[in-house]
Amino acid sequence: MLHFLKLLFSQVEAACDETRLLAIANQKLAAFDSLYG
């Protein structure tokens, strides 16, 4: 049971990292767009 929870938690953590990276990429894209768009 504990192993399952750890596995689930690590997957959620990875998803959060991906989401954060996507948000950063979107911000950079928006800044780039406002500068050069």
Which characteristics define this entry?
37 residues; mainly alpha; single chain
Helix/strand order: H
Percent in helix: over 70%
Overall mean pLDDT: 93
Secondary-structure-derived class: mainly alpha
Instruction: Give me the count of strands.
Output: 0
Summarize the main sheet.
Answer: none
Number of helices: 1
**So what's the overall shape?**
rod-shaped
Written overview of the protein:
This protein is mainly alpha-helical and 37 residues long. 95% of the residues lie in helices and 0% in strands. The chain is built from one helix and no strands. The chain has one helix at 2-36. The longest helix has 35 residues, at 2-36. The protein is rod-shaped. The mean pLDDT is 93.
